[in-house]
């Protein structure tokens, strides 16, 4: 079991500002400003956004990644999330099973794994817990999609936290804010045996984009929409770099 590091308020404040500067502010259109917790209460009263942030905050002491940078990154994502797609979580390694290596190269090492828990959907007032699901509705496809697998991606040496891991996490989270109904990052996990940290990512059941386009069943219009959507989001994304 992880030993929670002693809180460091200086590191916590730096992490909070870094999240705002590199994930939120850079992608805010025009002069959009994200409301503080107090401002959200005044604006909305008792509503899902601030209430969920408080629920996440109350649980901060019940989990840790063993690394303050990751802890604060996840916490900031949970506090600032405006919908469920923007929520990140810490996943214990035992959450995953049937882990299979599917790729390795300069970009890192990627595994496919099945997960025992689904994504957070909403707060269940009857059970007083998060309601989770393996199924979600795809706006693009107009149908429900069942997600059984996730991808686990890692970088660098097993005994150290690679800066590439957090760098990629920031980029993916910024991507999610650009297009919040198509998030690709779920959170982080750690192999307790090797000490290696991983990003927990969306897994494309049909493989990469090339295979998606080859196996698409919606005809050329569907394929064109996929390409146009990705190109539009990516152009907006790189202009913020």
TrEMBL record:
<dbReference type="GO" id="GO:0004672">
    <property type="term" value="F:protein kinase activity"/>
</dbReference>
<feature type="domain" description="Protein kinase">
    <location>
        <begin position="96"/>
        <end position="241"/>
    </location>
</feature>
<dbReference type="InterPro" id="IPR000719">
    <property type="entry name" value="Prot_kinase_dom"/>
</dbReference>
<dbReference type="InterPro" id="IPR011009">
    <property type="entry name" value="Kinase-like_dom_sf"/>
</dbReference>
<dbReference type="GO" id="GO:0005524">
    <property type="term" value="F:ATP binding"/>
</dbReference>
<protein>
    <recommendedName>
        <fullName>Protein kinase domain-containing protein</fullName>
    </recommendedName>
</protein>
């Amino acid at each position: 079991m992880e030993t929670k590091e002693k809180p460091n308020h200086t590191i916590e404040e730096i992490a909070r500002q870094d999240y705002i500067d590199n994930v939120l502010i850079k992608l805010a259109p025009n002069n959009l400003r994200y409301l503080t917790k107090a401002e959200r209460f005044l604006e909305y009263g008792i509503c899902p956004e601030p209430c969920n942030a408080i629920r996440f905050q109350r649980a901060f002491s019940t989990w840790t990644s063993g690394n303050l940078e990751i802890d604060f990154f996840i916490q900031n994502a949970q506090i600032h999330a405006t919908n469920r797609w923007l929520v990140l979580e810490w996943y214990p390694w035992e959450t995953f099973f049937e882990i299979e290596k599917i790729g390795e190269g300069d970009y890192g090492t990627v595994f496919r794994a099945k997960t025992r828990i689904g994504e957070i959907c909403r707060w269940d007032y009857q059970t007083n817990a998060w309601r989770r699901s393996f199924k979600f509705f795809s706006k693009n496809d107009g149908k429900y999609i069942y997600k059984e697998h996730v991808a686990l991606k890692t970088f660098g040496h097993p005994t150290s936290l690679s800066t590439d891991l957090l760098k990629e996490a920031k980029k993916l989270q910024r991507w999610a804010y650009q297009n919040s109904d198509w998030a690709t990052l779920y959170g982080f996990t750690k192999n307790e045996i090797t000490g290696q940290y991983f990003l927990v990512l969306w897994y494309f059941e049909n493989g990469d984009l090339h295979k998606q386009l080859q196996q698409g069943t919606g005809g050329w219009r569907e394929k064109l929409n996929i390409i146009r959507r990705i190109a539009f989001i990516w152009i907006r994304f790189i202009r913020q770099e």
